[in-house]
Design goal:
Layout: H1 2-32, E1 43-46, E2 51-52, E3 56-57, H2 59-73, E4 80-83, H3 93-103, E5 111-114, H4 120-133, E6 138-143, H5 148-157, E7 161-166, H6 176-197, H7 202-212
Parallel strand pairs: 1-4, 1-6, 4-5, 6-7
Antiparallel strand pairs: 2-3
Helix pairs in contact: 1-6, 2-3, 4-5, 6-7
């Protein structure tokens, strides 16, 4: 009986290890985006965000682009890369970001499009391709504070040197339960590609992907 009790305790303890690890990842996601790590680089990357009907930028895309333009204007990088959305779509996140940057007096020749991706992982690959065409290997990645940690991991997997620069969104003003929800969603966003590689059924991973990119 005692041996059975000890066995159950060991099984429970082992089951808690991945839960504790995931909780630590969520805490890391929440804390990482509170620090601006921007420093001079080859390019500033604006990650895609929601575009409203009619091609108007959503608030997150606006804040990302405005922050990236500020970094460009103080000379942190000579080029700005707008990412996200269907390639060639005038209302893609990349195209809308480009229009916002042009309206803020960023020269057209300093703006590059990395459109086509529909996930952060794909954005990293597309941006890396654009940067490779110009011989660039370092980037300031601009996104929401709770998103920059996941973005950093995917961009580094492409062999890039990454300096994250979160927008000025005050995460402390987000209700704690909602902030925890966002951090958990970001945590699954980090794990999702690995679940695909491990052979999890596509029905499950597709649902997970849809949830991760379901909006704010």
């Amino acid at each position: 009986m005692r041996a059975l009790r000890y066995s159950l305790l060991i099984v429970c303890a082992l089951a808690l290890v991945p839960v504790a690890g995931f909780a630590a990842l969520c805490v890391r996601i929440d804390s990482y985006g509170r620090i601006d790590r921007a420093q001079p680089a080859d390019a500033i990357v604006v990650l895609g965000a929601k575009v409203l009907p009619g091609g108007q930028p959503g608030p997150d895309l606006s804040s990302r682009t405005e922050h990236a333009v500020d970094l460009y204007q103080i000379g942190m990088a000579p080029g700005l890369i707008c990412a996200g959305g269907a390639a060639g779509d005038w209302a893609s996140a990349a195209s809308v970001c480009r229009n916002l940057a042009l309206a803020s007096q960023v020269p057209a020749e300093a703006i590059y499009l990395a459109d086509g991706p529909n996930s952060t992982q794909e954005e990293a690959g597309q941006v890396a391709s654009v940067m490779g065409q110009h011989g660039w290997d370092s980037a300031i990645v601009v996104s929401h504070p709770l998103h920059v940690y996941r973005a950093k991991l995917f961009f580094e997997r492409e062999g890039l040197t990454v300096y994250t620069s979160p927008t000025t969104t005050d995460v402390e003003r987000i209700d704690l339960p909602l902030r925890c929800y966002y951090a958990i969603r970001e945590g699954f966003g980090i794990l999702w590609p690995y679940l695909e590689q491990m052979g999890f059924r596509s029905e499950w991973t597709d649902i997970l992907h849809e949830w991760i990119y379901s909006g704010p």
